[in-house]
Amino acid sequence: MGAITFPNVMIVSISWIVFDSKRLGSRHAKWSSRDHICPVTISARNANSPNWSNKMSITKPGKIEIAFVLMASRITRRSRYQKFIEEIGLKGGENVLDFGAGWGDNSYYIAKSLNQKGRVTALDVSEEWQTVAKKRLKEFHNIDFVQSDIRSSSLLNGSFDVIVISYVLHDIPAKERSEIIKSLAIKLKSTGFIQLREPTKERHGMPMDEIRSLMKKAGLKESNSTVGKKEFKARYSKS
Ligand SMILES: C[S@@+](CC[C@H](N)C(=O)[O-])C[C@H]1O[C@@H](n2cnc3c(N)ncnc32)[C@H](O)[C@@H]1O
To answer: Which of 26, 88, 93, 149 could be cross-linked to 117 through a Cys-Cys bond (beta carbons 3.0 to 4.6 Å apart)?
Structure first.
């Protein structure tokens, strides 16, 4: 990827807008730069949307989508991800699962926060995003990459101190969310917790009440929640 110069940013942005409007129709070309950096998610709105289809799935990004996300990541990574991971307050020796790791920005900051005892598992169902994340994070020796559905993964039950869910749940079809949260809860240690952030806008996100109800059904208790205009953040633990 080239340097972050104004022409580079303009070329990638214009390519994306042209590509996106062709693919999704002009209504979907309205894109706010203040949204989360995942353009696929922004375009697809959410997994419940009547416009949702495999063609525009977040799990099957094309080359232009990947290029756009990586360019945006280089510009916003510190403000969007570093602060979120720092807020978790990792001590260093934790076993952390980055669920729906995508292009690896959360895993990058988690890996940097850990000492020699700690490890990150960057899990994603998407082969494309796993390839991107592996390439970007190749210098880290404390990251394990797992391309799998959490429900059928061979990750050990009760093995994680922390599970990070960052902008993933809303991308999962509504009927699968409960099963997935339950599977994640099983992977947590009894003393562990889930650190979650999800967008909550109607055109991009899911209702905060649904997140709360899913977590409750999985036997998880909420603490430290923050309700923003566009984003909901909270911690969920077993005890
Ligand atoms: C909007 S991106 C967020 C990526 C990353 N967590 C972040 O905050 O930048 C959503 C990611 O969730 C992944 N994803 C969607 N459904 C999933 C599932 N059932 N299991 C694991 N990952 C999933 C997608 O492949 C994609 O990489």
So the answer is: 93
The residue to mutate among 58, 77, 103, having the most atoms of ligand 1 within 8 angstroms of its beta carbon, is 58
Length of the chain: 239
Residue nearest to atom 7 of ligand 1 (CA): 166
Q: Is the model's pTM score more than 0.85?
A: no
Please name the residues in contact with 153: beta carbons below 8 A apart, sequence gap of 6 or more: 123, 146
- What number of helices (H) and strands (E) belong to the chain? 8, 8
Q: How far is the CA of 31 from the centre of ligand 1 (A)?
A: 20
The answer to whether residues 218 and 180 touch, using CB atoms and an 8 Å cutoff, is no
Give the atom of ligand 1 at the shortest distance from the alpha carbon of 59: 25
Question: pLDDT tens digits for the chain (239 residues)?
Answer: 344 454 444 444 544 444 443 333 333 333 233 334 444 444 344 454 443 333 347 899 999 999 999 999 999 999 999 999 999 999 999 999 999 999 999 999 999 999 999 999 999 999 999 999 999 999 999 999 999 999 999 999 999 999 999 999 999 999 999 999 999 999 999 999 999 999 999 999 999 999 999 999 999 999 999 999 999 999 999 97
